[in-house]
Amino acid sequence: MANEVTIPLLPCASIDEVAEFYVMLGFTVTYRQHRPNAYLSVRREEVNLHFFGIPGYEPERSYSSCLIQVDDPRELYEAFASGMRVVYGKVLVAGIPRMTRPRRDGFLVVDPGGNWIRVVPAVREREPARNGLTRALRNAVTLAGSHGAERQALKILEGALAREVHASEEERASALEFRDELLERLNLHR
Predict the structure, then answer these.
(1) How far apart are the first and last CA of the chain?
(2) What confidence tens digit (pLDDT) does each residue in 155-177 have?
(3) How far from 182 is each of 91, 152, 188, CA to CA, in Å?
(4) Is 116 helix (H, G, I), strand (E, B) or coil?
(5) Paired sense of beta strands 98-99 and 28-33, if any
(6) High-pLDDT (> 90) share of the chain, %
(7) Where is 159: in which H helix or E strand?
(8) Would strands 9-12 and 65-70 be described as parallel, antiparallel, or unpaired?
(9) Is-contact 117 68, C-beta < 8 A?
(10) Residue 39 pLDDT greater than 90, yes or no
(11) Could you tell me where the beta strands, DSSP code E, fall in the chain?
(12) Which residues contact 5 (CB under 8 A, 6 or more apart)?
């Protein structure tokens, strides 16, 4: 077998809202159908996403997720952030839709359908965590991104920041940046 293609089919309440959102991110609508069933497909370079509408669907209750592997997640983040800034005047970091800031392991987009689109670096061996702060940051990112447990993630991260006083400047900067994002998402600006 060669040249296989897998395209996720994700639920949403409104294909029109989803279409507007993805066009803002630089995607092109490649197909739209309202009847007999709502259906939408969008494409950006080699990334294809398809959506189907469900009347009464509640995005905040979504468990749908998709992984997009790219060489440089920060490059795609910047393109998405630029589109968000044009439409919203800022990058949305809380609520639905939203987008997290990029880290070494990528970033997360939650679209208007509540679908979690995870943009990650192309498969490579994962660096072992050098210290407790790096492990805590990875755990906090997972808790906040995958489980929506921002308060628990913040508690873990703040504890590690207090304990791991010998972490490198780069590790501390990454942890502090994510802590600031969590505070913003929780409306706890300091």
Answers:
(1) 55
(2) 888 888 888 888 888 888 888 88
(3) 14, 10, 8
(4) strand
(5) unpaired
(6) 51
(7) helix 150-163
(8) unpaired
(9) yes
(10) yes
(11) 9-12, 28-33, 39-44, 47-53, 65-70, 98-99, 107-110, 116-121
(12) 48
Residue 126 has pLDDT above 60, yes or no: no
Structure token digits, residue 102:
């990029």
Which amino acid is present at 115? Answer: N
What type of residue sits at position 41?
Answer: S
Tell me how long the chain is: 190
Cut 0.85: pTM above it: no
Per-residue model confidence (pLDDT) at position 113: 95
Grouping H, G, I as helix, E, B as strand and the rest as coil, residue 98 is: strand
| Residue pointed to by tokens 């600031």 | 180
Instruction: Compute CA distances 154 → 144, 161, 172, 173, whole Å.
Output: 9, 10, 14, 15
Report the amino acid identity of residue 151: R
